[in-house]
Amino acid sequence: MTATSPSLPPDGAPTPAPTPLPVLDDPAPPYEVAQVIAPGIRRIVARNPGPFTYTGTSTYLVGQGTVAVIDPGPDRPGHIARIQAALAPGERITHILVTHTHEDHSPAARPLAAATGARVYGYGPHGSGRHGGVDPSQAFEAADWAFEPDVRLDQGAAVDVGRRRLVAHHTPGHCSNHLCFADPSCGAVFTGDLVMSWSSSIVSPPDGDMAAYMQSLHKVKALSAKRLYPTHGVPIDAPQAFLDALIAHRKDREAKVLAAVTAGAETLDALVPQVYRDVPPAMHPAAARSLLAHLIKLVDERRLVADPAPVADARFFPPNASC
């Protein structure tokens, strides 16, 4: 997704263009092949490319001898077999760490655990990071509703994998139970879908929360990582600059929302074509989910008002407008 020149809504009022996202290409990764991408870190890309997974899910094997798997991926026997085949003689998988419970990240955890005897670690079931949970009938994402970790991790929990220590950081926003895992010994942070190297993340209410997402980006930035390992796309070698650009992109998108509402666009249907002119129309339904998350954040901050409430079929106005 790249930005275009500033555009004009129907009444001629200018809308600011978002800061272009930094994009790191990964055009042809070798599928289902374990590649050593750093000392003690192997990457296997699942063959599940798509508009939301880019080239596929990157499963990471961390450690030597005693190995942790981060984001085992979709429940596909071929992928699970390749994870096990990546082990050197004498190695064993002892920990399976899940960043969050979307169908391209966590479903392979349980069959891999059954095959290896490893324990599964995560924040909790889908929606567990949101007060009151999430009603499946109100969810729009492809979630792994069956997920239940053997060990629940919260902010700051440490997982020792051989000589490595991985520290869990609760980073809600994309998903309320989202975790990032930091390895302070080498400055690595495994970012799941909070930070991807090819696109920004979809933030889909009710489990997705834009205010929490922005806070989580700042939390990861404060870790001062040397390298980020997203679950979709290649590693990020300039984390601070990349995070600054991602935060600026979101702020600029928010400015476009405010400008469009001020110019008279009141509904999601009216706002999406204006706020996401730089996004292909085929992706507008997904963009509408993140747009709703922006609108909810702005209403919570009293920078917009919603009639009757900040939901998908509401009308949105500046706070000084008459509803």
From TrEMBL:
- Among the Pfam families in the record, one is Lactamase_B
Domain Metallo-beta-lactamase, residue spans: 56-232
**Is Oxidoreductase given among the entry's keywords?**
no
Record-linked InterPro entries: LACTB2_WH, Metallo-B-lactamas, RibonucZ/Hydroxyglut_hydro, Sec-metab_biosynth-thioest, WH-like_DNA-bd_sf
Q: Which SMART domains match?
A: Lactamase_B
Q: Which terms in the Gene Ontology molecular function aspect does this entry carry?
A: hydrolase activity
Q: Where is the composition biased (Pro residues)?
A: 7-21
Protein name, as recorded: Glyoxylase-like metal-dependent hydrolase (Beta-lactamase superfamily II)
